[in-house]
Amino acid sequence: MRQLSWRMVASAVVGLTVALEAVPWLLGWLQVGRQRRPRRDVLFFPSQVTCTEALLQAPGEAPAGPTGDCPCNLPHSESSLSHLLRALLAARVSLELCLFAFSNPQLGRAVRLLHQRGVRVRIITDCDYMALNGSQIGLLRKAGIQVWHDQDLGYMHHKFAIVDKKVLITGSLNWTTQAIQNNRENVLIMEDSEYVRLFLEEFERIWEEFNPAKYSFFPQKKQIC
Questions:
Q1: Is residue 20 one of the residues assigned to a domain?
Q2: Among the listed ranges 65-69, 125-129, 141-145, which one has the minimum average pLDDT value?
Q3: Do residues 189 and 167 make contact, with C-beta atoms less than 8 angstroms apart?
Q4: Helix %, strand %, coil % for the chain, to 5?
Q5: Start and end of every PLD phosphodiesterase domain (predicted)?
Q6: What are phi and psi of 120, to 5 degrees?
Q7: Is 222 a catalytic residue?
């Protein structure tokens, strides 16, 4: 009987030891389960017209509050445009933009604000639409942001952005006020490393192709014999 009791005690000790060894693994498994899921957002347009001043404060500016501090009469609520702005303004290191048309002033301010914060911004756009009245491209270039464009007959018709090489923003939306406020459009915001990789590869391929050094309409330097 005493021998049986010792066996029971020994078994209990072994079981307790195994259980204690499994605790770190179990805690790690639970922690993985609690990790933030990759972002998957879908935005639909037209967007409600709302105040975005609180999102677009430049460094050193007095903050615009959500209600009384802001002088505008627009609703101070969330909208598809404000969600898009938040996704862009989350950038901390880099922002790649590949856009057919870019004339919306709020989105232009957001991109300039990121540039002021030290985020590396690169823009690819269409040569025909970058010169249209109201385009933000001139202001972005004036701010010191690199903008490269096509020089062929076809449109550079892409509409996507890559935030910190981690988040892809793409869809049917042109970054124009007309599209944002009047058109039925969609934008998908996703954290997916494979999709981000594919779009980043496309961006880098076009970036190299549109290198200004390769523009054929620039006069060629004469060769000195």
A1: no
A2: 65-69
A3: yes
A4: 40, 20, 40
A5: 152-179
A6: -80, 115
A7: no
The residue range of the domain holding 174 is 40-55+74-212
- One of 41, 115, 128, 164 is an active-site residue; which one? 164
- The arithmetic mean of pLDDT across residues 110-139, rounded, is 96
- Residue pair 80/45 in contact by the 8 Å Cβ criterion: yes
Give the lowest-confidence range in 41-45, 144-148, 173-177, 212-216: 212-216
* Active-site annotation holder among 69, 152, 157, 214: 157
Would you state the torsion angle of the CA atoms of residues 18, 24, 30, 33, taken in this order, to the nearest 10 degrees?
Answer: -120
Q: What is the pTM of this model?
A: 0.79
Quickly tell me which residue has 């944002």 as its tokens. Answer: 180
46-50, 65-69, 136-140: lowest mean pLDDT where? 65-69
Among residues 54, 59, 53, the alpha carbon closest in space to that of 118 is found at: 59
Q: Looking at residue 3, what is its pLDDT? A: 56
Q: How many folded domains does the chain comprise?
A: 1
Q: Is residue 168 part of a domain?
A: yes
From 76, 149, 158, 159, active-site residue: 159
Catalytic, 164? Answer yes
The residues, any chain, with a CB within 8 Å of residue 87's CB and separated by 6 or more, are: 41, 163, 167, 169, 189
Residue 9 maps to a domain: no
Quote the Cα angle for 174-41-147, to 5°: 35
What is the C-alpha to C-alpha distance for residues 210 and 4, in angstroms, rounded to an integer?
83
- Report which DSSP code applies to 122: E
Looking up residue 49, the CATH number of its domain turns out to be: 3.30.870.10
pLDDT at 152: 80
